[in-house]
C-alpha cells in the first residue's frame, strides 16, 4: 500500500519563513494527484518532503501505515522515482541514460520501458546499433524528449511511487502526443504526484490539490472544481 498521507504538516526553510502550514491531504494508492497553484505556493516543497530531501518541522507524512521518517533511505529510494526533466541526464547515450535506472535490466526490459514511454525513434536507433548522445545536461534533446527519457527510466526502475515535475516543461507542441501517451502509462500503473502545468494532466488526474501559500485552498476532481466555479 503506497497511499501517502500528509497530517498537519508544517515546514520552513532555514530562513525561518513558513512555507507549509498545517497541510493535510491524502494521495491514494495507485492514483494520480495533481498539485497546482501559483508560483511559490509550496508545490515543489511538497515533492521534496515526500522524497525526504527535507524533513517536516511538525506533523507527519506516512506511506501506507509507516511514518516516512521510519523508512530506511535505501528502502525509500526503491519505492520512489523522481521524474524531473532537467536533472540527472548525463552526457552519454540515451540507452545508457535509461539503463542507469536499473543496470541489471535486460535489453528486452529496456526496450519495453522505452516503448511504453513512446521513445519510438530511440528504440529504432538502438535496434540499428547506434544511439543519440544526450549532450551535457541533455542539451541535444528537446524538453519533451528529455521528459520521455526520464519517464522511460521511471518505468524501467519500476518503483510504485512517481514524483513528477512538469513545471519546467517547455511547450513542445510536436511532442505533445508522445508525452500524453507516456504519462498515461505512468498514471495508469503508479501512485503519481505531479506538479501539473499541462491541462491534459490536470484533467486526467484522479485528484487535484490547489495550494495557496502553503495550505490547501481546494481539492477535488477536475469536474468537481469546475462545478464550484
Ligand atoms: P514551480 O511552481 O514548480 O516552482 P514556476 O511557477 O516557478 O514553477 O515555473 C517554472 C517554469 O514554468 C518557469 O519557466 C515558468 O515560466 C513556467 N510557468 C509557470 N507557470 C506557467 C504557466 N501558467 N504557463 C506556462 N508556463 C508557466
Ligand atoms: P512552488 O513549487 O509552488 O513554486 P516552492 O515550494 O518552490 O513553491 O516554494 C515555496 C516557498 O518557499 C517560496 O516562497 C520559495 O521562495 C521558498 N523556497 C523554496 N525553496 C527554498 C529554499 N531552498 N530556501 C529558502 N526558501 C525556499
TrEMBL record:
Source organism per UniProt: Enterococcus malodoratus ATCC 43197
UniProt-recorded name of the protein: ABC transporter ATP-binding protein
Top-level taxonomic group: Bacteria
Residues of the full protein shown: 331 to 559 of 591
UniProt subcellular location: Cell membrane
Domain ABC transporter: residue ranges: 4-229
Amino acid at each position: 500500500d503506497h497511499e501517502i498521507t500528509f497530517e498537519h504538516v508544517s515546514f520552513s526553510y532555514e530562513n525561518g519563513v513558513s512555507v507549509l502550514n498545517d497541510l493535510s491531504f491524502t494521495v491514494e494508492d495507485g492514483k494520480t494527484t495533481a498539485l497546482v497553484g501559483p508560483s511559490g505556493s509550496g508545490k515543489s516543497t511538497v515533492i521534496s518532503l515526500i522524497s525526504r530531501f527535507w524533513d517536516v518541522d511538525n506533523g507527519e507524512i506516512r506511506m501506507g501505515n509507516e511514518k516516512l521518517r521510519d523508512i530506511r533511505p535505501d528502502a525509500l529510494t526503491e519505492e520512489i522515482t523522481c521524474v524531473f526533466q532537467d536533472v540527472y541526464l548525463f552526457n552519454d547515450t540515451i540507452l545508457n541514460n535509461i539503463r542507469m535506472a536499473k543496470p541489471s535490466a535486460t535489453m528486452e526490459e529496456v526496450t519495453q520501458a522505452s516503448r511504453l514511454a513512446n521513445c519510438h525513434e530511440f528504440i529504432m536507433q538502438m535496434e540499428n546499433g547506434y544511439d543519440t548522445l544526450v549532450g551535457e545536461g541533455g542539451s541535444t534533446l528537446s524538453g519533451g524528449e528529455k521528459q520521455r527519457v526520464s519517464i522511460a527510466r521511471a518505468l524501467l526502475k519500476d518503483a510504485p511511487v512517481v514524483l513528477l515535475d512538469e513545471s519546467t516543461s517547455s511547450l513542445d507542441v510536436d511532442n505533445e502526443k508522445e508525452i500524453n501517451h507516456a504519462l498515461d502509462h505512468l498514471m495508469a500503473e503508479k501512485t503519481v504526484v505531479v506538479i501539473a502545468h499541462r491541462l491534459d494532466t490536470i484533467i486526467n488526474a484522479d485528484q487535484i490539490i490547489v495550494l495557496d501559500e502553503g495550505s490547501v485552498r481546494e481539492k477535488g476532481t477536475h469536474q468537481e472544481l469546475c462545478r464550484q466555479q
